[in-house]
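HUMAN:
Could you generate one sequence with tokenized structure?
ASSISTANT:
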Amino acid sequence: MDVNAAVAAVAAIAGVLTGVIAMLAFRWSEREQKRPTRSSLHTDAVLPPGVDTVLSVLRSSAVVLDEADAVVKASSAAYALGLVRGGKLAVEPMLQMARDTRRDGEIRQVELDLPRRGTGRGEALAVSARVAPLGSRLVLLLVEDLTEARRIEAVRRDFVANVSHELKTPVGALSLLSEAVMDASDDPEAVERFAGRMQIEATRLTSLVQELIDLSRVQNDDPLEDAEPVRVDELVAEAVDRCRHQAGAKQITMAAGGTADLRVWGNRGQLAAALGNLVENAVNYSPARTRVGIAARSVNAPGGDHIEIAVTDQGIGISDKDKERIFERFYRVDPARSRATGGTGLGLAIVKHVAASHGGEVTVWSAEGQGSTFTLRLPEAGAARDRAHQQPARETRAGGAGLAVEAGRSTPESPESNAYETLPAPEVLP
């Protein structure tokens, strides 16, 4: 009996010890789960209250560093710029600024040029970095991307310099010619010759000022405020009429073709100016006794049907290195030829802005010695699309305003093809 009592007592004691040990183990487990780990030290919990919310709405790239230079918080923009890699700040000058600010508490700012991540072209990324203390242990780094702002500033400086140069040339010529007229007052033939030159320079100056006004209007005005359905064949006829005199002087044949009765939605004046600039360039840069073709067609696109107006010439062509810059203001492939033809270098810039403001684009295919094809691509007017769906696909219609067309045929599918060969029964315009 005593033995049984002893066994029961031992079992009771063992049960009590087991319960105590289980309870202690459970408490220890809870304590370990609540204890901050090394990884949890670098989470949003160590940031002062409200800082995380402020950083999330900042446009600048934000990085928060602790006393060991480890990244506590970094925005997605900081990773995109390549500032943070492997949990560390990857830009040594910024890291040194953070250390200096942590040491003396002073706010520092500097502008740096960083290599662009993921490109092998050596392009620099311009940034402005500002470092400030955040509490007693942390340092805040804000980085602003200045690349686009610098590019715009460079474009503005170039534009002002180019305008000054382009205005100076005809103004200087007019000044010299006026002096020559005064000195040759007793020579009627010389006066007549100098007066003719003055008229040419005055015309060039007027064209330059007008194109500057047009470019400013295109950039500042919203074309959709006065938008309306515009007939493409009327735009083509107006562009052809605008260049009829220059083409006749060089014996250049102009042929218009494509699909009839197409309409685009936009500002008629701006669209006419854009297409007129393309046709005028084609005439000016084409040799005598050649051909300029203008063709329009409707193409299907995921975002809606578009109208493509292609202007093709047999001119000098454009090299590959010049294709990327021909739509810049005042950029000209052949400055000598541009001055001879009275070009200002603003025509294609106007075309680009008109196309972009109307939700379209302008593209170019060209080869040196083989000519060029500029294609103006614009959204088709909704009313014109509705009518097109109701008409037979192969219906032949008489072209309006000088457009001789056959439905369904226009410019070639590939830009490398010659657009002249696909113009459907073009009407020759003397």
